[in-house]
């Protein structure tokens, strides 16, 4: 039986001069690239214009990064945001908040759907968010695994046999801890397969908002409980009854419940595939 896992993986894959390729960046990019391949498959199966996936990718990348960066400073370092707002868009891009990313993604998809909500494409906000939930779950798994490779967002001390000792984390090294990043990565991967299976059964008959609701409840419901196993990210959280991640997860779960209940109370209207024919007498 394992006593604990010694984790001292180098977060850098290789470097050329001052340029380095890191596991986190690679996994972050793979989440988008594989996700867009899946969205291409979804668009093809539901008869949507494949060219729109390129536009969707741009909206997703920009909204995810801006939302995650803005959310990090708004929720965890508001003084920096107030006095140095350009830090949000200037490198190094250290500090990404998942709650901010979700807000950014939902905003970006709302803007995207405003352009695509025509009778021809019928890409409404809830249609897009339901399908994007599949790939965001996969991307979340990749990103949390990237956190593991970086030895960051570590768990609290524990004596469970699968505990990790994060040797490269100078602040929390040499003490066995919960691999909280791995818990979240596996949870996201399980959700990815659940949502893909759900969509594969229903496709265009998917109740609008149901997959978004399941995503929000699963991700942020588990996030609330995982926070009890994680070290707080900033010092001021130590004086709070719930940390920032838990506080922000409560409205996210409530939003998920709303979308899930609404999806089964509102009938799914299928798009008209062709114009009605004129009968000549």
From TrEMBL:
Major localisation: membrane
Q: What GO terms are given for molecular function?
A: phosphatidylglycerol-prolipoprotein diacylglyceryl transferase activity
Location in the cell reads: Cell membrane
Entry EC no(s): 2.5.1.145
Keywords tagged on the record = Cell membrane, Lipoprotein, Membrane, Transferase, Transmembrane, Transmembrane helix
Pathway(s) per entry? Protein modification; lipoprotein biosynthesis (diacylglyceryl transfer)
Q: Mind telling me which residue stretches traverse the membrane in this protein? A: 23-43, 55-76, 88-112, 180-199, 211-229, 241-261
Q: Which GO terms describe its biological process?
A: lipoprotein biosynthetic process
Q: Name the membrane topology term.
A: Multi-pass membrane protein
GO cellular component terms given for this protein: plasma membrane
Residues annotated as binding a 1,2-diacyl-sn-glycero-3-phospho-(1'-sn-glycerol): 144
Q: Which domain of life is it from?
A: Bacteria
Which HAMAP family does the entry mention? Lgt
Question: Of which family is this protein a member?
Answer: Belongs to the Lgt family.
Function comment: Catalyzes the transfer of the diacylglyceryl group from phosphatidylglycerol to the sulfhydryl group of the N-terminal cysteine of a prolipoprotein, the first step in the formation of mature lipoproteins.
Q: Which NCBIfam families match?
A: lgt (TIGR00544)
Q: What is this protein called?
A: Phosphatidylglycerol--prolipoprotein diacylglyceryl transferase
Q: Which gene encodes it?
A: lgt
